[in-house]
Amino acid sequence: MENMFLVGLSRQMTLRRQMDVVANNIANINTTGFKAERTLFQEYLSPTAHEDNFTGRDRRVSFVQD
């Protein structure tokens, strides 16, 4: 049951980060010299993760590019 909540929480954190980047880009679109940020997300699979002992997140931010 805990794993289900961790996956949901991880997804919500990922969506929030994406929204933050988009909001920042929109807010600064008319600023002189502003370069948009981009996010790149990649799948995160632990080689030792099993259904009964998974404690990590399913995704992580690879980098935010300016």
UniProtKB/TrEMBL annotation:
PROSITE patterns: FLAGELLA_BB_ROD. One of its GO terms (cellular component) is bacterial-type flagellum basal body. Pfam families: Flg_bb_rod (PF00460). Its main location: other. InterPro entries: Flag_bb_rod_N, Flagellar_basal_body_rod_CS. Keywords: Cell projection, Cilium, Flagellum. The keyword Transmembrane does not apply. Residues 6-35 form the Flagellar basal body rod protein N-terminal domain. It is found in: Bacterial flagellum basal body. Belongs to the flagella basal body rod proteins family. This is Flagellar biosynthesis protein FlgF.
